[in-house]
Amino acid sequence: MRCQRWTAMFFAMAIAANPQDFAPGVVTLAHIKSHMRDEAANLPNYTCLETLTRFHKEARRAAQTELKPLDTVRLEIVYSDHQEWYGSPGDKKTAANNPSEFVGNGLIGTGVFASALNNILTGAQFTYGGEEELNGRNAIRYDFQYSRLTGGFEVNVVGGRGTVGQKGSIWADPKTLDLIRLESAADDIPSWLPLVSSGTSVDYARTRIGDRSILLAQQGSMRMVPGDGTEDYDRVEFTHCRAFSSETTLRFDTSTDETPVVASSHATAAPPTITIPANQMATVRLMTAISSDAAVGDLIEGALVGAITRNGTEVIPEGAVVRGRIRRLEHHQRAMPQEYILALEFTEVEIRGGSVPFYADFLRTDKSRNIRPILPASDKASPKQNIILPDLPGVASFFVSGASFAIPAGFTTVWRTRGPIRK
User: Fold this and answer.
1) Residue 80 and residue 202 in one domain
2) Of the ranges 51-65, 139-153, 321-335, 368-382, which one carries the lowest mean pLDDT score?
3) CATH (domain of 384)
4) Fewest beta carbons less than 10 Å away: which of 15, 95, 184, 280?
5) How many domains does the chain divide into?
6) Cβ neighbours of 8 (radius 10 Å)
7) Do 55 and 161 share a structural domain?
8) Looking at the structure, do residues 332 and 212 belong to the same domain, yes or no?
């Protein structure tokens, strides 16, 4: 089978907006842009675990009507000095500036993490789209568009490479001005480029890094249909985001390799000899009560029930504090009964004055009538459609039914540890 690789790359633009009189509603856009510029200017150096679940559909196969799973790729992505670097999780060095180095074929792209937003906010022409509800939240929408002649989205497919324009929408919280979602699609595609369509979606949420709450890309998707009739889709999730400090090494040799190297070390990390062993059962008892009045990004804490051992020796003691945040809290009022999607992301375990990453697969929660792993049918007349929540290390995702809910302290989640994450 011929090896194929498609890449989609966002390039940041530095186009200053021309002074103009804003129409009603557009003033809020100016505030949103100013708010997002402030957020970007104050971003610390940090690293996240990127999980790409990739799907593919072959061309001209009548029997294949749906995308089929291709693979799962995990990378460590480092944001340093307004640049993105990639590496295999657990490696000490992250020196690649393009994630395509880690895959042999299929769709993979850059810029979903940070660059895409700057690309849109600085170069596009916006029109006010009105207010609407997005995942149970009030949001204000602005539609955007710009020509490929002003730069932007570069596509590399088998048979051609070129720049296309973009069109789409952004949604923001009218109270906090935080961006909620960005959706874009390829537009103004040159006739010689073998591309039918391409689109990207990114959801943003507050994340606690150290003692700061910052707005980051949390999840996204990429879809591409080249001219050969194939189709590719990637679901991208960012977890375990944390600050890091860079290390500098002076070298006096004749090497001609000038590739920058970003080496990360966490100031709060536990001694490197301590790692959570794989394939161990771990129960976390919630110490933070959670209700439907909570917000994405709120900090949560749990305590380990029972010690985690390796060959009979205690590695993580019973009662160790497990820290994390609310990753997702969406209220679907139109569902009957009403439903929430709740995701709890546990990122680290305190140990000996430091911390180790909490890499584990979520298995189950306490038994409860209003908590379930799949979304039930809205009514008996409609066929049941199961919504599968993404399976991410350290993330417990489930549905909670009701117009409101309250999960008390003491609620438990059960996990199977992964040990150190590797590619």
Assistant:
1) yes
2) 368-382
3) 2.40.128
4) 15
5) 2
6) 26
7) yes
8) no
pLDDT at 103 over 90: no
Instruction: Establish if 14 belongs to a structural domain.
Output: yes
Entry pTM? 0.76
In this predicted structure, the answer to whether residue 267 has a pLDDT above a threshold of 50 is no
Average per-residue pLDDT in the chain?
Answer: 77
Residues 316 and 227 in one domain: no
Average pLDDT over residues 35-43: 82
Condensed to tens digits (0 to 9), the pLDDT of residues 144-188 reads 998 777 766 777 777 778 888 889 999 999 888 999 999 999 998
**Number of residues written out for the chain:** 423
Q: pLDDT value at position 92?
A: 63
Dihedral of CA 157/159/163/164: which sign? negative
* Structural domain span for residue 39: 5-245
Task: Select the more confidently predicted residue: 9 or 118.
Answer: 118
CATH number at residue 149: 2.50.20
**Contact indicator for 182, 201 with CB cutoff of 8 Å:** yes
Question: Looking at the structure, do residues 224 and 296 belong to the same domain, yes or no?
Answer: no
Indicate whether 94 and 224 sit together in one domain: yes
Q: 331 lies in a domain? A: yes
Bridge partners, 205 (sequence order) = 216
Query: Residues 298, 195: one domain?
Result: no
Nearest to 200 by CA among 244, 157, 130, 153: 153
Residue 206 shares a structural domain with residue 296: no
Q: Is residue 42 part of a domain?
A: yes
Omega within 30 of 0 (cis) for the link into 174: no
**381-400 mean pLDDT:** 71
